[in-house]
């Protein structure tokens, strides 16, 4: 028998807030988390803005010695996971069988700043001065590894690396692990910290990012005619998934239920999306959920604010939902958080869970002149109260990796 899977805890670390109340309040107010980059000198860069976390202190969550042995993305992943476990009122070692608790926290790029620092040491001081912690700090699986070590989770432990689809793949894979009985609890989501000299330079070279440096808060503008690229973000979004049976036994508070997961490949182009791949991904999630497309109330779009990407996703939604595409509410919260790359899916699934709980749809801010080719209801500029029952979250990554999850209001 397939296990029902519910969401019992949420943890977030973004430029909009380090706790759920602050994060959700800023999102409902339509606040932008984008500002000037302060982590390094950007004076020679075409893009000088990002959704940077300005006031993060890892020692609030992690022992100082251990924190120094973690890349920034691992610090984000660990902090958000501990917040999510606290929100779920769950102690892995005390409240459950640790061998039945797993971790799946991915990163699209991993420890880029650690790589940069150690490569500089190699060139300037030689190979003997490279840190023995270089490799374990840099590799993308270390978020899942450190979370397991800190919490005591001994169940399934894995890491997805599928670019901007990473977080959603991590959650979807975790959902399936619990559904088939491989675990009772999964700590899952994504983390990213690539606001670094090489990271920003690389995306600038791709001409993928906005250069609206004089108006940082207005730079991320999905589905708007004047959009000129995405704005990079950083942070982590973590969900605690449990089998319904396990959650009921311990009297857990439930945000919602995961009911569908789809994944597909474009087999088309390294960086340009194919609407057909995204449409097939959504259709697979709908089929997995056993629902009709016209039951979906809200879609948290991938919506990166790139000219090609937003048009492609609009086409894909129409293909997957048919006429209902014009009736469903769609918004891109990247307009406020920036694009967290491998962490985006985790943060956006968390947003969907909060939308179900509070009955509000977050807005797409900066949508002032809607692109005629993007002709759906994108909830412009102001949050909207709504009776939400079924919501969908999309994530699409370089390489043609697509992931979609569907959440539902919990009913006994």
**For this structure, what is the CATH homologous superfamily?**
Thiolase/Chalcone synthase
Number of strands: 14
The CATH topology assignment is Peroxisomal Thiolase, Chain A, domain 1
Summarize the biggest pleated sheet. 10 strands, mixed
Structural class: alpha/beta
- Spatially, the strands of the biggest sheet line up as 5-4-6-7-1-8-14-13-9-10
Reading the helices and strands in chain order gives EHEEHHHEHHHEHEHEHEHEHEHHEEEE
Task: Calculate the mean pLDDT score and round it.
Answer: 97
Indicate the percent of residues in helices.
25-40%
Number of helices: 14
- Reported CATH architecture: 3-Layer(aba) Sandwich
CATH class: Alpha Beta
Distance between the termini: 17 Å
Give the total of domains: 1
Q: Enumerate the spans where pLDDT stays under 50 for 5 or more consecutive residues.
A: none
What's the alpha carbon Rg, rounded to whole Å?
20 Å
So what's the overall shape? globular
Strand content: 15-25%
GO biological process, one term: fatty acid biosynthetic process
Protein name: 3-oxoacyl-[acyl-carrier-protein] synthase 2
Pfam families: ketoacyl-synt, Ketoacyl-synt_C
Domain Ketosynthase family 3 (KS3): 2-409
List keywords for this structure.
Ketoacyl_synth_AS, alpha/beta, ten-stranded mixed β-sheet, two-stranded antiparallel sheet, about 400 residues, globular, Peroxisomal Thiolase, Chain A, domain 1
